[in-house]
Design goal:
Blueprint (H helix, E strand, L loop, with lengths): L1 E2 L2 E5 L6 H14 L5 E5 L5 H14 L4 E6 L2 H11 L3 E5 L8 E7 L8 H12 L13 E3 L3 H10 L4 H7 L2 E5 L6 H10 L3 E5 L19 H10 L3 E5 L6 E4 L9 H14 L4 E4 L5 H8 L4 E4 L3 H11 L3 E4 L3 E3 L9 H15 L3 H6 L5 E7 L3 H15 L4 E3 L4 E4 L10 E6 L6 E7 L2 H16 L1
Parallel strand pairs: 3-4, 3-5, 4-7, 8-9, 8-10, 12-13, 12-14
Antiparallel strand pairs: 1-2, 2-6, 5-6, 10-11, 14-15, 16-20, 17-18, 18-19, 19-20
Helix pairs in contact: 1-2, 1-4, 3-5, 5-7, 6-12, 9-10, 9-12
């Protein structure tokens, strides 16, 4: 799968050695054969793919700095720090373990945008050039990336105040790239950590996405150990989900809602989120009198708009927090820092903070359909059926219901996935019943 989110495939099936060589060679050309930072998550296929990628980059004349198993945002930060020509993260993020992927980073430390990725795809289709034996690049290792990342997070929060609270935290890193670095950050914040699935062994003991249904063991750990809360990450640690002190998953949408409330209460500024993110963020922004801009789904789409608007905070409802105070990329460690900072500042439990947020219920799902033509026909029909509502076709179809007798106050977003061969349906309403009615109505149309 090729998209603005990178290139993903099943190892040994669609993601082959030949494809890895093509990707690596094309990226060397895209980056002007300059220095490249490379990192990966803990998948069992990551090491061999990283080794092959590094070798090809070297044969193309690039110097490679291998920073090992690290979160995706750590690679982004190192590109900035080392003033590298680009970076590659070998991680399929939330996809199942048989998948792997290339996330491509430009010299500014952000993912390639739509025009940049199209240029890169063009290079993949052309002949690749390699340098002579005496011009090949060096491959070195650098273990300083985690320290750099943690330092950036500590600089944006009141670490001393957090240390005084002596929080206890259950941590589920799904045995991924966040396992060690996150424990180190929490230790520096004076927290007692109960690690759950924090062994970097390449095996995912639960569903890779930090969705409520995948956090049952974390909920049990929170209650059993009486911790103040639980944090959950995905394999490359760019997404953050939270379980409150009672063992209740608060929903990954509320990660960005809490952070938005925290930051806007300190300093007003624009907010940027994608079309699939909870309406609670808009309500919070309205409370502080600031504007919200919605974008297409995909981290780089949010980032580009944040740059244009000089945003205070941005992110995605999948648990992705993007803070310009650190760097323009989703970062679970930044989210953790802000959440603990908020709890310490307000002296409230997580459940109390969540109770103060605007209340919405979201339902996400996916369906398989027979070809793009069928989905396009349904989307066109829906625009006619709901022409009296607020409609956006920026990314698939989003309908905000302002008149509908049953759906009023809710919304639905229908779009093809950037990362999986499926069609996503996201619905949100003011109650479980309303959300279910919205979701079932639209899911039913694609199942017919």
């Amino acid at each position: 799968m090729k998209s603005v989110s990178g290139i993903r495939g099943i190892v040994g099936d669609s993601l082959t050695p030949e494809l890895i060589v093509s990707i690596s060679s094309a990226f060397a050309r895209y980056a002007g054969r300059g220095d490249i930072i490379i990192g990966r998550d803990s998948r069992p296929t990551g090491q061999v793919i990283s080794d092959l990628t590094s070798s090809v980059l070297s044969l193309c004349g690039c110097n490679v700095i291998d920073i090992g198993i690290v979160p995706t945002p750590t690679v982004q930060l190192m590109v900035e720090e080392k003033k590298a020509a680009g970076g590659i993260v070998i991680s399929a993020s939330h996809n199942p373990i048989e998948w792997n992927a290339f996330k491509l980073i430009n010299k500014s430390g952000t993912f390639l945008n739509s025009s940049e990725i199209q240029k890169f795809f063009k290079y993949m289709e052309e002949d690749h050039a390699y340098v002579k034996w005496d011009k090949i690049g060096n491959i070195t290792k650098d273990g300083s990336a985690s320290e750099l990342h943690i330092g950036k997070v500590l600089n944006i929060i009141n670490a001393a105040r957090i240390r005084k609270k002596k929080f206890s935290i259950a941590l589920d890193s799904v045995n991924g790239a966040g396992s060690i670095i996150t424990q180190t950050l929490l230790a520096k914040l004076g927290c007692r950590t109960v690690p759950l699935y924090c062994e970097i062994n390449g095996l995912f003991p639960r569903g890779a996405e930090p969705l409520p249904e995948n956090l049952k063991d974390l909920a049990i750990a929170v209650k059993k150990n009486r911790t103040d809360l639980g944090f959950a990450q995905d394999p490359d640690a760019d997404r953050l989900a939270i379980v409150d002190e009672n063992g209740n998953p608060i929903g990954e949408e509320n990660t960005i809602a809490l952070v938005t409330e925290h930051l806007l209460s300190r300093e007003k500024g624009r907010v940027v989120i994608n079309l699939s993110t909870t309406k609670a963020v808009e309500d919070i922004a309205a409370k502080y009198g600031v504007k919200v801009k919605r974008t297409r789904v995909g981290e780089i789409n949010v980032v580009d708009e944040m740059r244009k608007n000089g945003a205070r905070i941005g992110g995605e409802g999948n648990g992705g927090v993007i803070s310009p105070e650190v760097h323009l990329g989703r970062d679970s460690l930044v989210g953790i820092g802000y959440i603990l900072d908020m709890m310490a500042e307000r002296n409230k439990t997580l459940s109390e903070l969540v109770a103060s947020l605007p209340s919405y219920v979201m339902k996400k799902g996916k369906v398989s359909i027979s070809g793009n033509a069928g989905s396009a026909s349904i989307m066109t029909r829906l625009q006619g059926e709901f022409k009296g509502e607020k409609i956006s076709t920026l990314d698939g179809l989003r309908i905000d219901f302002i008149k509908h007798e049953v759906f009023k106050g809710g919304w639905v977003h229908l779009r093809s996935s950037n990362t999986e061969p499926i069609f996503r349906i996201i619905a949100e309403g003011k109650s479980v019943v309303q959300t279910a009615k919205i979701y079932d109505h639209f899911a039913g149309m694609f199942r017919k």
